[in-house]
């Protein structure tokens, strides 16, 4: 029996191809946006994204992985699963938006506050992700690919127009609303024409809602801790060094996370349905698939670290203006983070299958504590280099050290991650 079917790899191919297209577009337009806005305004936009990012788990409710898992395990209940998830997501948007508006009403309004409200409103259209879950679970990511690439082309044109006319942070924040709205319209059109789902058959199930929330709650908590964990360095940099430094470090985040990290994530997400479907019935095949994916991810993570170690100076000086030149050394340090993060992402999928997501909560609580302490100690003295080291070390503790704390994982570490066939 082959390790993965042709359908599994075909599904993953579309995931990765999407990220490569985003990479090409990102390399072309994102430096132009940074240069157009400058370090200070880029910093305002990025800290606004970080604030909204902390709230995203409450928009998503941790339902993404759980919904996909349930669609894989119980395909006959697809209309109930999708209908219930849609309503839960819409309700969460209303609650979070109301809280944000209430906070804004009783505080002084600033540019950052208004950008946060614009970014938050975009999540109304992000609810259409539930349709994407269906295509992921049924290994039809090719459809998602064409939808997202169409959206990407329209957003690229709007971004280029904004750069040419030197529009500010508000314009580029509003483009997120535009992106999600276009994507929603395309998804609705595809579903209507393909007849793979029927909106009239979508239905609410109270029992299913309780089961979904119960299963997703640990993921909601862990996702909140994750985004807070990822935003800690932004908040410390903004506090100690200001918006301009945040703008510079956002270049580091973009080059490592958006351009390279996302491709590794696409590989994991693309093959996840294949992992889930054999977890219950064929543990031997499941472990072989985990080992194969671990090896690919480790090699890819190593390549990312080496690439930026040798080419960081060239990339920063060639594509960014002088206000971003201090990003070079932090980039060389932070570039090694994916080596650890990929293992943690795969470990999280394993926890989803085991239904032991409470361990993911513990994992990122540890990461938050370590990252906060290191940022507090290193950023005031070593500035952005200290921030890069703080994030790198915290990723190592969160994604490697934590796994080794469990005897069961230590016992099976060779077969789970590193063993040869």
Automatic annotation (TrEMBL):
<feature type="transmembrane region" description="Helical">
    <location>
        <begin position="252"/>
        <end position="275"/>
    </location>
</feature>
<feature type="transmembrane region" description="Helical">
    <location>
        <begin position="80"/>
        <end position="106"/>
    </location>
</feature>
<keyword id="KW-1133">Transmembrane helix</keyword>
<feature type="transmembrane region" description="Helical">
    <location>
        <begin position="169"/>
        <end position="191"/>
    </location>
</feature>
<keyword id="KW-0472">Membrane</keyword>
<keyword id="KW-0812">Transmembrane</keyword>
<feature type="transmembrane region" description="Helical">
    <location>
        <begin position="50"/>
        <end position="68"/>
    </location>
</feature>
<dbReference type="InterPro" id="IPR050833">
    <property type="entry name" value="Poly_Biosynth_Transport"/>
</dbReference>
<feature type="transmembrane region" description="Helical">
    <location>
        <begin position="112"/>
        <end position="136"/>
    </location>
</feature>
<feature type="transmembrane region" description="Helical">
    <location>
        <begin position="331"/>
        <end position="348"/>
    </location>
</feature>
<feature type="transmembrane region" description="Helical">
    <location>
        <begin position="212"/>
        <end position="232"/>
    </location>
</feature>
<feature type="transmembrane region" description="Helical">
    <location>
        <begin position="385"/>
        <end position="406"/>
    </location>
</feature>
<feature type="transmembrane region" description="Helical">
    <location>
        <begin position="296"/>
        <end position="319"/>
    </location>
</feature>
<dbReference type="GO" id="GO:0005886">
    <property type="term" value="C:plasma membrane"/>
</dbReference>
<feature type="transmembrane region" description="Helical">
    <location>
        <begin position="143"/>
        <end position="163"/>
    </location>
</feature>
<keyword id="KW-1003">Cell membrane</keyword>
<feature type="transmembrane region" description="Helical">
    <location>
        <begin position="360"/>
        <end position="379"/>
    </location>
</feature>
<dbReference type="Pfam" id="PF01943">
    <property type="entry name" value="Polysacc_synt"/>
</dbReference>
<protein>
    <submittedName>
        <fullName>Membrane protein involved in the export of O-antigen and teichoic acid</fullName>
    </submittedName>
</protein>
<dbReference type="InterPro" id="IPR002797">
    <property type="entry name" value="Polysacc_synth"/>
</dbReference>
